[in-house]
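agent> step 3/5: call structure_predict on target 'Prospero homeobox protein 2' (Patagioenas fasciata monilis).
agent> reason: downstream docking stage needs a structural representation; sequence fetched in step 2, passing through unchanged.
tool.input:
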Amino acid sequence: MAGSSLDPCILLPFSQAAALPQDYECDASPGEGTQALAFPRTHAPASVTCAGDRDQLSDQCLQDQVSDQHLQAKRARVESIIQGMSLPLTTPAFGTSLEATSGHERQRGSEMPWESKRKLKVPQQGTGAAGQVALTGGSPHAEGCQQLKEQLCFLEQQLRRLQEKFSQIQEALTPGHLKKAKLMFFFTRYPSSALLKTYFLDVQFSRCVTSQLIKWFSNFREFYYIQVEKSARQALLEGVADTSALRVSRDSELFRALNTHYNKGNDFEVPGQFLEVASLTLREFFSAIRAGKDADPSWKKPIYKIISKLDSDIPEVFKATGCSQELLRS
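tool.output (status=ok):
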């Protein structure tokens, strides 16, 4: 009886029997079973510590990558603003090495798991190997991050200089110049840059100022043609058949819409030649729409060509500084 094998489930309580090693079998010898009970298999605590250090190292790397991505995104926004201002972007000498370093960091960031990007742990500095790595400097990653910050600072300075230039342009063209340009539209619809320089003598011209003035007249023409086309379609709906009956007078609805836009307050007397040009434009739109030419996307171009040849001379009084007040008094 003493030499036979004993069932550990009989000798031990149920809770202890359930904790027996997995390699214990019913056909094992009594000595082997005793050794299995006396020396259970456990993992070394050192491996747990190493795993914790690896987690902290991984978290530190992820934080560095997120910081780099933030700086790169900020740099990209500044570059896009500068490029949108149509001015050349000059970068310092360290740009080449910086691009290589930032490209390497972007590649590493793309390989990072999505779950790790979404939630990061805050590492405890000064604990274990992770704290020692965080305190040590001079790594290629740290150098690339420093270069990225320097280039970002350079781009921000260049952006401030560009903003100052644009603010000077805005100061050069005042609301008085805009009102003067609107009154000039009664005489010319397609002014050249040379003509604009002749009549805006108090403005220091640059490429941006010239572009702004040309843009003003482009907006004036757009509003003009929209209003004339609207009147032409309204005449067709009313059953007008004879184009000679289409005339723009000072009492017409079309003239009131145009005069309110270009001559707000009705302070300036619109020249009669502008009424003739508006009447001709109305008849051209009416004829083209009645003939079905508006089905062609470029049906307005022949009308633009005709109207561009009807510009008249601008009075000399427009060349004087502060001519808006003189025109209103006359």
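agent> step 4/5: record observation. The radius of gyration is 41 Å.
agent> proceeding.
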